[in-house]
Specification:
heterodimer; A: mainly beta; 6-stranded mixed sheet; 5-stranded antiparallel sheet; 11 strands; globular; B: 115 residues; mainly beta; 7-stranded mixed sheet; 0% helix; 55% strand
Chain lengths: 114, 115
């Protein structure tokens, strides 16, 4: 099955700086890579995703890059703000019968210091 | 807006009790999932279902079972709760694989403590 590794497990940055979280995956058949943000006590919510036919995708201050050859993808947050503080999860998905399964990374606790 | 509702946010159960965690989604999604979230381990898939009465084991099914009698409802059952099942449980749903916008949507989570 798929295995997703995520680094770092914790990350502290000063407000206004950039943050980068990296993930690697093992199954070359994976073709969908979402990122979820989970604020304290709340549900994980999708913030951005990328499909395997795209190398980079950007949405305002967040961007995701994908290197299929190396089987890794990264989340970039620019001009960080205190409200960006949360746990971020990457995931990789491959078709499994009629249901799509996501394998999640172990999460990164991002703290933005004012 | 997709809504995935978990009936219990916080539960405290005794070792050996049978525990039911209920989940309902209102988007007519085919796929439903149960995950367990533990610090440092991320989200681990327990079971998923791609149709009524259909289920498949995820990565950590031991000690759990599931039931999907209706499309909108997916229940997680702990036959005999143990302290190592103390965790946050997240239900999720998604449209069929291959459809556009096949994002997975999570419920608010159920915090289960087994004493």
């Amino acid at each position: 099955g798929e295995n997703v590794e995520q680094h770092p497990s914790t990350l502290s940055v000063q407000e206004g700086d950039s943050a980068v979280i990296k993930c690697t995956y093992s199954d070359s058949a994976s073709n969908y890579f979402p990122w979820y943000k989970q604020e304290l006590g709340k549900r994980p919510q999708l913030i951005i995703d990328i499909r395997s036919n795209v190398g980079e995708k950007k949405d305002q201050r967040i961007a995701v890059t994908l290197n299929k050859t190396a089987k890794h993808f990264s989340l970039h947050i620019t001009e960080t703000q205190p409200e960006d503080s949360a746990v971020y999860f990457c995931a990789a998905a491959y078709p499994s019968g009629s249901a799509r399964q996501l394998t999640f990374g172990s999460g990164t606790q991002l703290t933005v210091l004012p | 807006d997709v809504k995935v509702t978990q009936s219990s946010r916080y539960l405290v159960k005794r070792t050996g009790e049978k525990v039911f965690l209920e989940c309902v989604q209102d988007m007519d999604h085919e796929n439903m999932f149960w995950y367990r979230q533990d610090p440092g381990l991320g989200l681990r898939l327990i079971y998923f279902s791609y149709d009524v009465k259909m289920k498949e084991k995820g990565d950590i099914p031991e000690g759990y079972s599931v039931s999907r009698e209706k499309k909108e409802r997916f229940s997680l059952i702990l036959e005999s709760a143990s302290t190592n099942q103390t965790s946050m449980y997240l239900c999720a749903s998604s449209p069929p694989s291959g459809s556009s916008g096949n994002t997975i949507y999570f419920g608010e989570g159920s915090w289960l403590t087994v004493v």
